[in-house]
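Deliverable D2.4 — example input (structure tokens):
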């Protein structure tokens, strides 16, 4: 029987649960950061333009918007532990559906598979993010989430290389063969070979997800009651609901914009590089470079927060770096410009670990609902990249990138400096 905890006195007490949750962050990080190379894959496999190819991250991230509140309701009934396992099962179903539809070369049903995978990740994220935030003191939550981020981004750095090796190997040569195919039948045969490469890896991963789900159910992972671990004054909090917490709503906007810039730097970087005419064999790995920069950022965050700098102050510094790197990408060209986009990974690294605990601070029994709203905000990863691919049809792609990114980082700067404190004084009284 799972142990139920009201609060967590120290991080050291829960090393075992932290490691288990770290594995879960690795799992959904692997799927999340496959979207970048998948954009390259579907463009070739289904002969798509950028707008339609970017339906890949849109389908994945829209699932957060539609399913996060239902996920919170599910977690109320199942508890966080069973909810995590259920999320893994749903991801397995989505992986099998995606593999089958891609092999059959039917694009929109394949997007449904990505939506189902996203639904499973949404349920998983709705559970694990507040879980790790309140597993110890809330003021050091950014440090714990940074460790989770390392697990997530290690998976993200590995995923494009694994996908490239299994599916996109020698992609330039294959693209040339497809373009030069003498007949439609010859072209279809090449595309069948390409799409067939995806079936076995995704089916194997689906099986592994089921095994991990069973392992989580049988593990000693404790249940945590948010109402005891993330205290809120009953008179000022629960009596008026979430509308009494403006810092949460400002945090929802902040997280929406953050995920948008994160996906732009990670998933859209390949398309950005192709704008300079860089070869597909190079651009297919660009997502990994962003993720490596994020890993460095997480290590810096682990070393500095909260010992030398608060999580909110580090968030503000990160936003300033985001503005600087986005402008650097605009004023340079080719691989140098791509390097500035990848460097945004460093700026982005500690944003989620800071925004999430700042936004749910003090919610108490409303933590699951507040967390669900924040997970819904991940839909920013669908909206901002779509704005980019539409905007770059009308203006220079570098300008399109900059005019989207800089305002997002400026709002994140505001939240780190002041937004996270709005309404907090009322709860301190």
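Example output (designed residues):
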């Amino acid at each position: 029987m799972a142990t139920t905890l009201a609060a967590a006195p120290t991080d050291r007490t829960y090393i075992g649960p932290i490691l288990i949750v770290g594995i879960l962050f690795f799992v959904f990080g692997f799927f999340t950061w496959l979207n970048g190379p998948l954009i390259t894959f579907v463009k070739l496999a289904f002969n798509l333009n950028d707008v339609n190819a970017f339906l890949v991250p849109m389908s994945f991230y829209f699932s957060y918007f539609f399913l996060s509140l239902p996920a919170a309701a599910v977690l109320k009934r199942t508890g966080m532990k069973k909810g995590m396992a259920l999320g893994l099962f749903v991801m397995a179903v989505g992986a099998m559906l995606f593999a089958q539809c891609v092999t059959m070369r039917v694009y929109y049903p394949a997007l449904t598979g990505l939506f189902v995978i996203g639904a499973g990740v949404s349920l998983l994220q709705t559970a694990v993010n507040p879980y790790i935030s309140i597993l110890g003191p809330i003021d050091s939550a950014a440090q714990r989430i940074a460790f989770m981020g390392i697990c997530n981004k290690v998976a993200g750095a590995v995923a494009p290389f694994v996908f490239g090796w299994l599916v996109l190997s020698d992609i330039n040569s294959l693209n040339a063969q497809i373009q030069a195919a003498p007949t439609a039948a010859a072209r279809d045969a090449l595309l069948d070979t390409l799409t067939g490469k995806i079936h076995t890896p995704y089916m194997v991963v689906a099986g592994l997800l089921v095994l991990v789900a069973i392992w989580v159910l049988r593990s000693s992972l404790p249940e945590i009651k948010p109402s005891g671990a993330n205290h809120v004054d009953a008179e000022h909090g629960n009596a008026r609901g979430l509308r009494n917490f403006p810092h949460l709503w400002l945090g929802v906007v902040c997280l929406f914009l953050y995920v948008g810039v994160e996906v732009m730097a990670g998933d859209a970087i390949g398309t950005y590089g192709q704008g300079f005419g860089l070869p597909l064999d190079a651009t297919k790995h660009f997502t990994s470079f962003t993720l490596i920069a994020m890993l460095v950022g997480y290590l810096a965050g682990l070393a500095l927060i909260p010992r030398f700098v608060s999580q909110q102050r580090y968030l503000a510094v990160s936003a300033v770096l985001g503005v600087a790197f986005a402008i650097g990408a605009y004023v340079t060209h080719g691989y140098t410009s791509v390097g500035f986009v990848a460097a945004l990974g460093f700026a982005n690294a500690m944003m989620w670990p800071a925004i999430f605990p700042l936004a749910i601070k003090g919610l108490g029994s409303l933590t699951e609902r507040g967390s669900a709203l924040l997970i819904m905000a991940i839909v920013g990863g669908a909206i901002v990249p779509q704005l980019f691919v539409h905007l770059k049809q009308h203006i220079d792609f570098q300008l399109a990138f900059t005019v989207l990114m800089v305002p997002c980082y400026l709002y994140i700067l505001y939240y780190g400096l002041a937004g996270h404190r709005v309404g907090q004084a009322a709860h301190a009284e």
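Residues 1-11, 232-239 have pLDDT under 50 and may be disordered.
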